[in-house]
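Appendix C. Worked example: UBC core domain-containing protein
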Amino acid sequence: MQFFISKSQQEKNQIAQQSLKRLTNDLLDEKLQELNDNICQVQITLNGQKLYLLISPKIGSFIYNNYQFQLDFSTNYPYSPPIIYVESNIPHPNIDLKNHQVYVKFLDPTVWKPIYGLYDIIQAIKQTILYIDYTYIPNDIQCIKSAQRMGQLDHSTDEEESDDKGFELSENFKRNFELPTLSRISVENEQSDDTEEENLDDPSERSGQEPAIINLTKNTRHILDDKNTLPKPKK
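Step 2, the predicted output written as structure tokens:
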């Protein structure tokens, strides 16, 4: 019996092999050791073309939580960023637990560049978990409420430390996401949950269900400069 592999399948296999080769080289980067420091514990496990990342903050509002991520590098990496899913059921404003995706601006196709590597990817995820990125919140009611609550807490803390830390809730956020509005959105989301729930368990269908991304506030911790370099963590 003979088996025939189509040309398109051969191309996919070739792309997957190239992606795996690049990922293997990235894993040799000595800078990866710098990711595990006194503010955050980082563990990396590779299984085929999927990388499992465990991030455990030692500071901030999410201290002692363990965030488990799955990074899929089989889709034309490094010319396209990896696909990321969260496997931990832990609330965070940048994580949409309905479609199991983590929202990291650095990995947005409009920002991503092939020169970036595994170190940059993990550093961006680490930054987003440690310091909420209010400029890249998924348009989900729970994420919005969480961002509002954390933003107000962060804002009041910054005011106590200094008159100006570069943090400010945007007027659009104050105007459009007040609690009465949030309650109305919550009711609408609950009505649509039943029709969406049956598709959420299939990872292959998650990417088509991404909610819109909204910018709730200006936050200097996550704004990329003209060279798209990663921001430095707040001391």
